[in-house]
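Hi P.,

Sorry for the delay on this. The queue was packed all week, but I finally got your sequence through. Input first:
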Amino acid sequence: MSILARSLFWVISFGTLGYGLFAFVKPDDELLKKFDEESKFTDARKVSHATIAVLKEAANPQSDIKRLSRRDAQRLEKLQKAHKAREEVDATNENEDYFSVAFKVRSENIEQLLSHIPTLETNVLPQHFDNIKREVNELQKFVVTSSFFLKEFNMRKYLGIVQNLQTKCYELEDRYVPRKKFGFTRKKLPKSLSQKQNSMDENDGAGKTDSNKWDEKVFGFDSKEDKVLSLENDELFQRDVALRNLKNCTVGLRGVMGTLHITNLDNCIVLSGPVTSSVFIEKCTNCKIVTACQQLRMHSSIKCDIYLHVTSKGIVEDCSDIRTAPYNLHYEDLEKHFNMSSLDRNNNNWDRLDDFNWLAPDVPSPNWSILDASQQICDWGDWWSKTPL
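Then the structure:
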């Protein structure tokens, strides 16, 4: 038998035998499954399964790998912010160091000008005081314009020094340049002297805190009717402001003032930012006044509502039908202006007035009362641009 025939014989024989075995002896399905399960744990499959599991874990947003990556990114961002903040602090410290030196030089210069006052001739004192006031105002502006890098505590400290210099200047001016006192009565004068006397009456007694006295440098509004009037901080800053002889007017004062004089107003609304020292109100009728100050002095006024923030006790005298409520004005730079004024926002004696015409300590004064909450104006927003009703 040839080799080809022999090979064909064996192929057919083994094929037939294998087919017979598969047909009559079927393999166990469970055995096949077990074999397949065991084959998963070969080295190649183990590596493949592990790789796929790691990739799936990395794709999961809750995974440890993802969290670690996110934490590293946050840590890096935090370090960058800290570095930037450190650079800003260094720059701020440099600015504060320069400011501190410059402020000291300028304040010492003002102190020196004040110390020269007793040695000067009387005729040069008015001009000398004007120079001091100008220097004080410039120093105050220097502090305010540096507020963007000054800490709040330091800002208050510097403004307090400026205010002390200003107070000292006015005290020395009252001592060395006395002003003529205002009189309500006068003797009859010859016709030739009456004109001169009238001129004197207009300018006398400006140094006294009574609001009948007006300094030539006091500015504001006078003799207006049915008007909406306003001034901003660049005009008002630490100035002595006067409102006189107004009727049916609304006055908006968005800024920090040194003092505020309000005299002879009828049916007016006054919306005022903080005043670093005193507010003087006299001869006002049927007015609504919103103001914040260190001291309040109110004389000869009737039927007025005062929305007040005052750090000391307010005083009323010869007044009636006065009602008080807490200060509730709002405008864009109000908080900044309060910081400039150095008024304590946490100290408000709006409901504790002293009536000089009522001496009974255990009986409330009938001349003033607290305005009922239901009658208070809560929002002054619309009143900036319209006259009283």
